[in-house]
Amino acid sequence: MRVLLADDQHLVRTGFRVILEVEDDIEVVGEAADGSRAVTMARATRPDVVLMDVEMPVMDGLEATRQITGAGPGAPAVLILTTFDRDDYLFAALRAGASGFLLKNGTPEELVDAIRVLARGDALLAPEITRRVISTFARPGDPAGTAHLGPDAEAALGELTPREREVLVLLAAGSSNAEIAASMQLGEATVKTHVSRVLAKLGLRDRVQAVVFAYESGVVRPGG
């Protein structure tokens, strides 16, 4: 798994490199000290995962994430790593296309596991972050749930079958595939197929983006 490090602190990047390079299945392909450089290096080195700090000079990590994940098919997954436990960073990062969000006070094992999760195409949020995503969107009148869909997103939502729409609702509740299967009385393999179709039709990369989309589209309503 090819990993690019983006953080404006040299000691932090060195620490990440030391942690990651002892793993046989992880290769650090480059380091960037600002967001603009991260975007350039992501295009040049084609990593599987970018570890992205939020506050960096020249271009911040949120805009860098937007540009990296917006590059189309094959774009690397972005794991936001920050010391700032702030909801505004969390939701901005998710809307920018990040597939994971971890605080820097996590353990080396959690960091390595997160990279492996993102590299295989899944999404990851620390459990406490997942709870905050759901609870914040569930608060009536919260600005996190007030974005408006464009015409393309509205059309994509209309492409969902009733069963796929039900799957989207359960994804928004944070349900695992096993929990969705139990709720809908389906096999897990069938659920995986439905989830894949939902993501493909809505143009979403992963389950994290599906949660955000479900609330912003009104499929799941704050307080509902």
From TrEMBL:
<keyword id="KW-0597">Phosphoprotein</keyword>
<keyword id="KW-0238">DNA-binding</keyword>
<dbReference type="Pfam" id="PF00196">
    <property type="entry name" value="GerE"/>
</dbReference>
<protein>
    <submittedName>
        <fullName>Response regulator transcription factor</fullName>
    </submittedName>
</protein>
<dbReference type="InterPro" id="IPR011006">
    <property type="entry name" value="CheY-like_superfamily"/>
</dbReference>
<keyword id="KW-0805">Transcription regulation</keyword>
<dbReference type="InterPro" id="IPR001789">
    <property type="entry name" value="Sig_transdc_resp-reg_receiver"/>
</dbReference>
<feature type="modified residue" description="4-aspartylphosphate">
    <location>
        <position position="53"/>
    </location>
</feature>
<dbReference type="InterPro" id="IPR039420">
    <property type="entry name" value="WalR-like"/>
</dbReference>
<dbReference type="InterPro" id="IPR058245">
    <property type="entry name" value="NreC/VraR/RcsB-like_REC"/>
</dbReference>
<feature type="domain" description="Response regulatory">
    <location>
        <begin position="2"/>
        <end position="119"/>
    </location>
</feature>
<dbReference type="InterPro" id="IPR000792">
    <property type="entry name" value="Tscrpt_reg_LuxR_C"/>
</dbReference>
<dbReference type="InterPro" id="IPR016032">
    <property type="entry name" value="Sig_transdc_resp-reg_C-effctor"/>
</dbReference>
<dbReference type="GO" id="GO:0000160">
    <property type="term" value="P:phosphorelay signal transduction system"/>
</dbReference>
<dbReference type="GO" id="GO:0003677">
    <property type="term" value="F:DNA binding"/>
</dbReference>
<dbReference type="Pfam" id="PF00072">
    <property type="entry name" value="Response_reg"/>
</dbReference>
<dbReference type="GO" id="GO:0006355">
    <property type="term" value="P:regulation of DNA-templated transcription"/>
</dbReference>
<keyword id="KW-0804">Transcription</keyword>
<feature type="domain" description="HTH luxR-type">
    <location>
        <begin position="153"/>
        <end position="218"/>
    </location>
</feature>
